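Shapes recur. Our protein:

. . .
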Amino acid sequence: MKKIAALFSLTVLAGMALLMRAGSPGSPGAGLAWAAPQQAEGQKPAGWSGRDEYDAYMGVTGEKDPQKRIGLADAFLQKYPNSFVKDTVYVVLMQTYAQLNDVNKAIDAAHKAVAANPDKLEALTYLSFVFPFVFKGDDPEATTKLSQAENDAKRGLDALQKLKKPDNVTEEQFTQYVKQQRANFNGCIGFVALQRKDYAAAITSFRTSAEDNPADVYTFYRLGIAHISADPRDYDNAIWSLARSTSLAKAGNNPAAPEIERYLKQVYINYHGNDEGLAGIMAQAAASSTPPEGFKVAPMETPKPTGNASIDAFNQTFFMLKLGGDRAQKLWDGLKGQPFGVGGFIESVEKGAEAGQYVLKIDVLEASKGADGVYDIELKDSTQPNVKNLGRGDAVHFQGTISSYAAAPNLVITLDGGKINEDEIPDQPRVQPKAKPKPKPRVAPRRTTSRPRP
């Protein structure tokens, strides 16, 4: 998930470009034109303090160099703090900082534009678009920022209802613009609900957003996460939404496409048992934003014994958890707090949240062992300092107390108070063999030609 979030950040600038297009309602050019109509030369413009204020404003909006534009905008706001176009000048700053890839200053300018005019649609649009890309769940002010983002998006929907179609814009263009903006605001509201773990509300908002914009990669990705996180889990709609997101991302050469597809495959294989049929679903999802009536993904059958004691014990104990529903809940009620231990292979060893604590991620199933970043057990250990000497692929036997689990994208069981068999823990870090130096290419000796003696 973290890696996907990082890849998403690569697309922020591309999305910003959509907000920078002139000639469409709500875009910089159009918005500024509505705010400040041209005045006759020598005439004192209505609403302005004087010709100097109007000229200063036109100097801001007409400046091509972004750094000079920022200086002119700052000077205007300092000299005319109560100007009736103050909100628009802040939008100019927002757009300019976005152009310069300074997202934090762009966000700050957008907030100031909204403070000056609560219905400033350009600023509300930008704030709702960029918020899912910059929000961090571990931010100490996360709760406050989520509330503010929700308010901004709802305010944007209200402002959108008040928007009048400009005379120079066709009805079709205006309707399309409204849909895009509405999808943006509802997508942000859905994202806020997703962070709050209100999955039902998130699904409602994402679906509304998808109806207005059925080609948005992130709406369908987040909709898939909401479906897979809901109680009960909805694998059918989750897989369809993730397949739609993957297809759109690949078609648009989105940098997040490989990670979204990997997540889809983990969810699908975790539920279905293998990737058979997934290519067909992706082809269907590429052509339609909604699944066909009666769409179902067949769950895998209960795994048959493999002859591997660790794999069979893991499957027999935990398999039903991934299917969700009442049976999974009853199973979990009986499993939580119980001891569990089998054998597996180290995926990674990381420092825990507390001093001296380590978290070991362990592969048990063959599918996990063969996939980078996929594991079955998260073993929290605080009593064996030498576990830090274990490396990826090391075979271990472990035990711990079942404390929690995650069902998607693949089933992961968390064990507290974990222990590794002592005789399997090396006293020192394993020394990686040095790569043999490549032999130097042999250079043929120069051939000398001796002159014949006289």
Summary: Strands lie at 339-340, 343-351, 358-363, 377-381, 395-406, 412-420.
